Amino acid sequence: MLLIVCPNLVPGWVSRDILSVMDKKGQLRVQCTCCEATLTVDRGSGEVLFTEKPKKKTLSFEDALQKLQHEKDTAADRFKEAFQREQGRMELVDKKFEEAMKHADELEEPIRPMDLD
To answer: How far apart are CA 34 and CA 84, in angstroms?
Structure first.
């Protein structure tokens, strides 16, 4: 089995899947499973000779605008949730502080090194 490492991958990740293979003058053309790029690989050494990145899909202006609006809405919702969690956390910290202040009189005073002389 030939292991091919895509140059676009995170270091250390190896693709073991070969989707399509075509012979071409001692070279293999392989489609990467992670980034959809077409890799031209040397049969003898297994080195990636060329990488052809896939063409990006173009979005219409309306689709891009709709996507941007959706991202704004979800960002606002995430902010509100985070703000509410923080408010609840601060209330909990305030309650703990008040409780600790009530019991502050019960604590023993630490022994100071000067008192031991």
So the answer is: 38
pLDDT tens for each residue of 71-117: 998 998 999 999 988 988 988 999 999 998 888 777 777 778 877 76
Helix (H/G/I), strand (E/B), else coil: 45: coil
Residue 43 lies in a domain: yes
Most confident residue range from 33-37, 59-63, 66-70, 108-112: 66-70
100 falls within a domain: yes
Chosen domain end from 40, 55, 70? 55
Sort strands 48-52 and 38-42 into parallel, antiparallel or unpaired. antiparallel
> Both tokens of residue 34?
């992670």
Query: Cα(4)–Cα(8) distance, rounded to whole angstroms?
Result: 12
Tokens matching residue 57 = 């899909």
Between CA 69 and CA 40 the distance in angstroms is: 40
Gap between the Cα atoms of 65 and 84, Å rounded? 29
